[in-house]
């Protein structure tokens, strides 16, 4: 997503990649979701994990299946613009499997298990 976030730190700890994003609270997406109380849509959080999987794998990917997707809290970038993605990405034959958690300083926002095709 253009101008939605900036990666400012990424580090590997064993098999987990921890990436810190600075989310643009002024992004046009928030004009309609929701004026005066920005909430990051779940589909956008899922897209962030796809882009993270592409960054890690250095491949262009397409979502094949998502399971166990849980949205447990609201992410409002005006409260805190840092979003942390913790991702485990494994190659499974011709696919990539991602297990991820998105969190902020207040706790876990999203959990996802996803399978991506290489395109």
The helix content, as a percent range, equals 10-25%
- Mean pLDDT value: 95
Count of distinct structural domains: 1
By secondary-structure content and strand pairing, the structural class works out as mainly beta
The number of helical elements comes to: 1
Profile the largest sheet: 6 strands, antiparallel
- Which fold name fills CATH's third level, the topology? Thiol Ester Dehydrase, Chain A
**Superfamily (CATH H level) name:** Hotdog Thioesterase
Strand order of the largest sheet: 1-2-4-5-6-3
Weakly predicted, low-confidence segments: none
Distance between the termini: 18 Å
CATH class: Alpha Beta
Identify the CATH architecture: Roll
Give the total of beta strands: 6
Sequence of secondary-structure elements: EEHEEEE
Overall morphology:
globular
Radius of gyration: 14 Å
């Amino acid at each position: 997503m253009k101008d939605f976030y900036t990666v400012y730190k990424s580090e590997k700890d064993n098999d987990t990649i921890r990436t810190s994003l600075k989310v643009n609270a002024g992004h046009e997406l928030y004009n309609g979701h929701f004026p005066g109380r920005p909430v990051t849509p779940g589909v956008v959080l899922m897209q962030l994990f796809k882009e993270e999987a592409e960054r890690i794998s250095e491949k262009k990917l397409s979502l094949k299946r998502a399971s166990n997707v849980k949205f447990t809290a609201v992410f409002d970038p005006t409260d805190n613009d840092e979003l942390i993605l913790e991702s485990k990405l494994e190659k499974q034959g011709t696919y990539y499997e991602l297990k991820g958690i998105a969190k902020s300083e207040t706790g876990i926002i999203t959990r996802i298990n996803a399978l991506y095709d290489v395109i």
